[in-house]
From TrEMBL:
Keywords: Cytoplasm, Endonuclease, Hydrolase, Manganese, Metal-binding, Nuclease. It comes from the Bacteria. It is found in: Cytoplasm. This is Ribonuclease HII. PANTHER family: RIBONUCLEASE H2 SUBUNIT A, RIBONUCLEASE HII. It comes from Candidatus Wolfebacteria bacterium CG18_big_fil_WC_8_21_14_2_50_39_7. GO terms for molecular function: manganese ion binding; RNA binding; RNA-DNA hybrid ribonuclease activity. Pfam families: RNase_HII. GO terms for cellular component: cytoplasm; ribonuclease H2 complex. The keyword DNA repair does not apply. GO terms for biological process: DNA replication, removal of RNA primer; mismatch repair.
Amino acid sequence: MMKKLRYIIGIDEVGRGALAGPVTVAAVAITVNPKPKIRNPKPRLKLRDSKKLTPRQRETWFGYIKTHPGIFYTTAGVSPKIIDKINISNAANLAATRALTKLVKYLTIVKYLTKSKVEVFLDGGLYLNKNKIRVNPRSYPRLSAFTIIKGDEKIPAIMMASIVAKVTRDRIMVKLHKKYPKYAFDRHKGYGTKKHIKAIRKHGPTKVHRLAFLKKIH
């Protein structure tokens, strides 16, 4: 039965437009055979893109995804320093590639995935760098990867990935707030709100700010 397992993987990112913090990508795998039962964790709490959910709703869905036996996920991030060096699009694609690599390694080692067919769907704007996917080619599954415009509105695995990525990054920014309390990262999560820009102008940038992005606000 394990050899017949097939997966659909959804990949999405958050933090592309932020002034501070990492860009974070999640890869979520859902088994197709046998197909798992996916139910709303609460009445009327429909699965949606993370932007259409409240923080509490995202946490509820994240807890559901985390404990569901037929759903698996990994995350990866790229730091502001690397974003400044290679630009945000390349950084997001690098994070997507890293997240997929980690997930495939997990499925290969823990779930005995070998030459099973795996379909990968990335939200629009994300692409894989297949030359940087580091796995054992003998055990690597047959991958078919597609970038889908507005995939976070169409494909459940991408919707889940958007939720996992958003919750993961928000938690990172809350931790960074404790280190840099003057910038209120816990509120705006690194995005360019008026309060955030005012704090940057008053106190200067931190090590977690994207210097290339800050040039646009001065």
